[in-house]
Amino acid sequence: MDDLVFYDTLRQALWIATMVATPILVVALIAGVTVGLFQALTSIQEMTLTFVPKLVAILIVFWMSMGFMTETLTSFFTDRIIPLIGGL
User: Fold this and answer.
1) Which key words tag this protein in UniProt (predicted)?
2) Which residues form the domain of 33?
């Protein structure tokens, strides 16, 4: 395999990993900031209050974006990785 093909495939894989992870990370960030602000305003310092809402938000977004993630990863694998493995 040529070095250029390897680096191009690696670049595409990193970009796809970023696209797939972005919805979950954005929701985790928003939920964390919201819960942190709520805790700061009410002086409630309960550990489960930070964990449970973020977990629920992440699970909801993961469930909603599961089709996009699966389609993106499957198309990358079938269009890019399998031809490289087969030597085409």
Assistant:
1) Cell membrane, Cell projection, Cilium, Flagellum, Membrane, Transmembrane, Transmembrane helix
2) 3-86
